[in-house]
């Protein structure tokens, strides 16, 4: 993985790289070594980026300073804006943002004035994930301080996105990884004193509407056998 960049503006490291930081945050060993990733995802709230006066230098220049083979990845929509960058080995750096509007905006990169020329992919449910983030350590070299989602929100968010994955081969592989990460956290959080916060996060998501309930229920039903009990005990209290 390329050497991480230090971002001056508020941003949250999300995805599997963030999951790999929860062992340090929770003080418990998670089998994260078995979950590999070829990308780094960073999320920012759209309103913050639109209002903040400060800005990063050009993102591509920063990445090229770490690895000169980084290139802009064209957006699938054909938009001249891009939210992703990839190096010669295939490692991707992507930027995401919140989307609370219509679904039609989710496939168009959003202009992010404070991101040094980069855009960001608007995603549903992102506002839930990155609210009230926490700080942890990325185990690289001497350790790097990073901001990551609250682990309770991360666990619930993984249930939600797992329940909305496509049924093709790529979607099934991503769903499997989502469910494993969620299951590990649903097992670990209660034993590390975060059970009440996890219950609050599940209830908050459940009460956000029918689409949220359906995604959570479908994911809970397909949870891997080794994690089924922990997830369904928590979700089951809301369905009775």
Give a description of the structure.
- The strands form two sheets. Strands 1, 2, 3, 4, 5, 6 and 7 form a seven-stranded mixed beta sheet that branches. The chain has a two-stranded antiparallel ribbon with strand order 8-9.
- The chain has helices at 16-19, 22-26, 46-51, 59-66, 126-130, 151-162, 169-191, 195-206, 210-221, 228-239; strands spanning 12-14, 39-44, 71-73, 84-86, 92-98, 110-111, 119-123, 134-138, 144-148.
- The protein is of the alpha+beta class and 240 residues long.
- The longest helix is centred in the last third of the chain and has 23 residues, at 169-191.
- The protein has ten helices and nine strands.
- The chain starts with 11 loop residues before the first strand and ends with a helix.
- The model is unreliable at 1-9 and 47-53 (pLDDT under 50).
- A hairpin with a 5-residue loop joins β8 and β9 (144-148).
Topology:
Layout (H helix, E strand, L loop, with lengths): L11 E3 L1 H4 L2 H5 L12 E6 L1 H6 L7 H8 L4 E3 L10 E3 L5 E7 L11 E2 L7 E5 L2 H5 L3 E5 L5 E5 L2 H12 L6 H23 L3 H12 L3 H12 L6 H12 L1
Parallel strand pairs: 2-5, 5-7
Antiparallel strand pairs: 1-2, 3-4, 4-5, 6-7, 8-9
Helix pairs in contact: 6-7, 6-8, 6-9, 9-10
């Amino acid at each position: 993985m390329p050497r991480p960049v230090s971002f001056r503006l508020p941003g949250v490291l999300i995805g599997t790289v963030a999951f790999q930081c929860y062992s340090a945050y929770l003080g418990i060993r998670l089998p994260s070594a078995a979950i590999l990733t070829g990308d780094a995802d960073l999320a920012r709230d759209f309103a913050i980026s639109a209002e903040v006066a400060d800005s990063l230098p050009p993102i591509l220049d920063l990445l090229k300073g770490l690895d000169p083979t980084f290139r802009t990845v064209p957006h699938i929509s054909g938009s001249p804006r891009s939210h992703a960058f990839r190096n010669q080995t295939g490692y991707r750096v992507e930027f995401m943002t919140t989307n609370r509007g219509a679904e039609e905006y989710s496939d168009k990169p959003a202009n992010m004035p404070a991101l040094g020329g980069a855009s960001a992919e608007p995603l549903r449910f992102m506002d839930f994930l990155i609210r009230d983030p926490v700080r942890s350590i990325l185990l690289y070299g001497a350790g790097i301080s990073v901001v990551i989602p609250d682990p309770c929100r991360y666990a619930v968010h993984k249930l939600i996105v797992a329940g909305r994955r496509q049924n093709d081969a790529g979607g099934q592989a991503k769903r499997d990884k989502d469910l494993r990460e969620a299951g590990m956290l649903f097992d670990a959080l209660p034993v590390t004193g975060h059970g009440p916060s996890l219950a609050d996060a599940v209830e908050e998501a459940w009460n956000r509407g029918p689409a949220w309930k359906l995604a959570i229920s479908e994911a809970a039903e397909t949870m891997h056998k080794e994690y089924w009990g922990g997830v369904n005990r928590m979700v089951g209290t809301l369905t009775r």
